[in-house]
Amino acid sequence: MRALFLLPVFMLLGTFCSLEAANILCLVSTAKHNNPSWSKPLFDALLANGHNLLVISTAPNPEPKKQVDGLVYFHLPNEYDVMKRHFLHEEPREYKNMVTLNQLLVWYEVLLGSCRALLNSDTMSSKMPELRAELCMEYDLIITDVTQGIECFMDLVSGWRSKPVLGLSAGKLTPDLMSLLRAENTINAARIPHYISPVPKNMGFWNRLHNHIMYYAEPLIHLVVTRPVLSQLMKAEKGFPNLQLVLLNTHPTLDYVQNLPPGVIEVGGLHIKNQASPLPAYIQEFTDKFVDGIVYINMPYIEYMNGQGLKAMYTMIHDNPSVAFIWNVEQLEQLPAKKPNLLTLHVNQSLQQDILAMRDVKGFLNHGDSFSLQEAIHYGVPVVVLPLKLEEFNNAQRVMERNLGVMLKAKEFNQTSLSDALTRILDEERFTSALYQAQLKFRTRPQSALELAVWHVEQLIAEPRLFKHFAQTEALAQNFCVANSLDVLTVPLIVLLAAVVSLANLVYVLHTGGSKGQRSFEKTVPKKPKKSKKSSKSDKVPMNVTLKLETTELIEDLNDEILEGEEQLLKGEEKPLEVKKED
């Protein structure tokens, strides 16, 4: 009997022991601009908790330099470059503006183009036998990056439907993500700006019309473009795996507040380090020489700004000689000229966070990707944002609305625009005040983003069916009219329409029928006939055939009565005359 009391304890210990030995498959096939390395802190934390990981990733240079216990790593480069393919002209060297609807097509073309570039690469072909051997193992959990709403590697995994699948998304909440989660679509197009649209939060009629077009165009693109093309690359049903949970890289300080399905957990800032590392001595020595602080620049493709990009940078640096400028030139094709207050570096993501963590950093110039903006909020640094592609326009709009920085538009870019924008974030107090409030909200959480992510991963391993009730398959089975209650709304609409028609008919009858009745009544009253020609002519113009016949009969009857009356009067007058003659 005593052993029965210890049974729950043994079961709990068995659960923890199984967690320590859990086998996890991690698939990250996104292109470089989606920052595939943002999930690395989660993988490192799972390794530290004793789990075994097989990681297949496209992250740039993430492969560990030495063997790590419990980790098997495959690096597959994704050479797809969305900027060079859609937004940059080489000859002449310039940036190409694109309307938002075209960018929506680009968003889905990125999904297909990135998958095609990866699956058809020489690296993939050479490592395929080894990959298939590793993927034949049994896994307790599959973690997949679904930033673009697809996982190209899932076609290689056999039996994945019997395993719990957790999705990672570096972007915002989209209808595609909720479809993978089989959750009800909680996005209201009348209130939530589209994730790649620069529509303001307070939308007018035309903004809402534009927003609805963006959202309702997505299913059509899926039907006509995405699925037919994807079926030529892989099995489409495997490219869109059913998810139990989604870890979403958003936070209300930067992203709009909305109703999240229960299977979506916000982990914005997952990639941010708990503690910054000390900077190299040469960087510290350089920044100590300047009294007005530090400005960090990370703006690749600045050379494509209509020939004004580098000139605008030089003008800004020249106009602020007491400010130290640190410029990340990793992706620049042309190195900038040397300046006394300029330090050029090749900066990776970790070093960027260390630079922003410095107390004297007064500004951060970037293109508005979510990761850079989250880092700026975390360290309380105002930003100058020059959006160029896709979700960057949405992020820049939120930055401007919340006074987190200044937004520049590519079509309005000139030699002095950067200098003017920097002056604003350095001098205007409202940016510092707004950043302080945002930083406080971003950092104040019951759990850090990393702790929250690890907890949900281990809960899903321990109890795979724990989140099964989050899916709402009956909601997905409904057609468009039923899901949006259009069939129910037709009933009051028909009743209202019938009431309006009845009221309009009543008004018409009262207006036209009443006047006709009055005229017919007036004509039925006998009047003394007039001998004028006008009256006789007017009597000969009836309004309609029926009225004409009735009027003719009435006149004839009246004439007969008048004639009879006159005859009687004449007879009455003649009799007395005859009597007098006899007398």
TrEMBL record:
CDD domains named among the record's database cross-references: GT1_Gtf-like
UniProt keyword list: Coiled coil, Glycosyltransferase, Membrane, Signal, Transferase, Transmembrane, Transmembrane helix
Signal peptide: 1-21
Segments traversing the membrane: 489-510
Segments for region (Disordered): 516-544
Organism: Drosophila simulans
Positions in coiled-coil regions: 548-575
Protein name listed in UniProt: GD13807
Gene Ontology MF annotations: UDP-glycosyltransferase activity
Biased composition (Basic residues): 526-535
InterPro entries reported in the protein's UniProt record: UDP-glycosyltransferase, UDP_glucos_trans
SUPFAM superfamilies referenced in this protein's UniProt entry, alphabetically: UDP-Glycosyltransferase/glycogen phosphorylase
Record-stated family: Belongs to the UDP-glycosyltransferase family.
Domain of life: Eukaryota
